[in-house]
Amino acid sequence: MARGRLRVYLGAAPGVGKTYDMLGEGQRRAGRGTDVVIGFMEDYGRPLTRKMAEGLETVSRKSVSYRGTTFTEMDLDAVLARRPQVALVDELAHTNIPGCRNEKRWQDIEELLDAGIDVVSTINIQHLESLNDVVESITGVRQRETVPDEIVRRADQIELVDMSAEALRRRMAHGNIYPPEKIDAALSHYFRPGNLSALREIAMLWAADRVEEAIQRYREQQGIQEPWATRERVLVAVSGGPESETLIRRGKRTSSRGAGGELLAVHVQLSNGLATAPPRVLDHQRSLVESLGGSYHTVEGEDPAEAVLQFARQVNATQIVIGASRRNRLKNLFSRGTGEAIIEGSGDDIDVYVVTHEEAAHGGLLRRHRTRPPQSPDDDPR
Fold first, then answer.
1. Listed range (56-65, 221-230, 267-276, 349-358) with the worst mean pLDDT
2. How far, in Å, CA of 197 to CA of 12, rounded?
3. How far apart, in whole angstroms, are the C-alpha atoms of residue 146 and residue 129?
4. Are 339 and 307 in contact (CB under 8 A)?
5. For residues 346 and 338, is the Cβ–Cβ distance under 8 A?
6. What is the DSSP letter of 129?
7. From CA 167, how far away is CA 199, in angstroms rounded?
8. Is 122 helix (H, G, I), strand (E, B) or coil?
9. Domains of the chain, first to last
């Protein structure tokens, strides 16, 4: 039996229209003759959401008693017995009442998928495990119901339900999200413009990363070596030399020029085991990259230029930043440097930027040393 397919509507905040869009998709599929049922849907008393559900078959909920109170949950066994082609299951991050077979609704959904039933579900970014702390720092509210990112990332389709902060606040003010007695408090706290704008940006970045993962998988499956410039991805080749910090900072500025740019740094460890730089220096440069929001990588290879180019294509880099050669011109007459090899091997699909620095070899054929002692700090040739 083929496993069912999961589609998730992702939102930045309550009220953007995830459940409405989920029901709209159910209506469209049902209109095409697909067998669709509502496994669980929470309309929160919103008339437009409730109206969108009209005409769709709903599997009755089951009652669960807990500590003297009766609650209703999705009747997983009833949905499995009904065996629809598509089940609409709202609120992926929901925690089931104790006494249910599974602790979490996403585990219920896994059972439906394993039974060959396609599922359409919903979630807000504050319920993603990796973003829980970030969202709390923005809104001051900690979400206790979370879902491991991997559960959502492996969905077959993720659709971002986007809405500007201004439009969402208008929807709130018109009473389309919360009841009247909760509107003022919501607008002055969780639904402040700054909060909503930040949450929206986080949602778009998370969704963009998911798209990048899908593109990367496709490139690997198809054996595509050439980078696809879906976003600026700047790779800094770090030798461990004193110029590396300059290159890292230049790479950061370059990656920040466009929305969603990404900074990566790579250091090549020679296959013969010889150290290319002191470990403490590399650790410091790794810390600098990470403090700037980038990621640091170490690869092994016999040829540094070949290793950098191979890694660049592996991560879909669009630009490589290297330092101007520290080799003097006499050496360049007899052998090709790493920088030259990277430039020649980059082809037409990766741009290479050569950044000058204090350690670069400039001037005549040989660098001359002064014979007279320095007269002042400014005269020191070092």
1. 221-230
2. 9
3. 5
4. no
5. no
6. G
7. 14
8. strand
9. 6-221 (3.40.50.300), 233-355 (3.40.50.620)
Asked if 8 and 122 touch (Cβ cutoff 8 Å), the reply is yes
Give the single-character DSSP code of 325: P
- The token duo for 125 is 């970014």
Evaluate if pTM is beyond 0.70.
no
Question: 């559960």: which residue's tokens?
Answer: 151
Contacts of 139 by beta carbon, 8 Å cutoff, 6+ apart:
126, 189, 190, 195, 199
Q: What is the DSSP letter of 374?
A: P
Per-residue pLDDT of 213-247, as tens digits, reads 555 666 677 676 665 555 688 999 998 888 899 99
Whether residue 358 is predicted with pLDDT greater than 80 in this model: the reply is: no
* Identity at 313, one-letter amino acid code: R
Q: Which residues contact 125 (CB under 8 A, 6 or more apart)?
A: 10, 11, 12, 131, 135, 199, 202, 203, 206
Q: Quick check: 269 and 374 in contact, CB under 8 A?
A: no
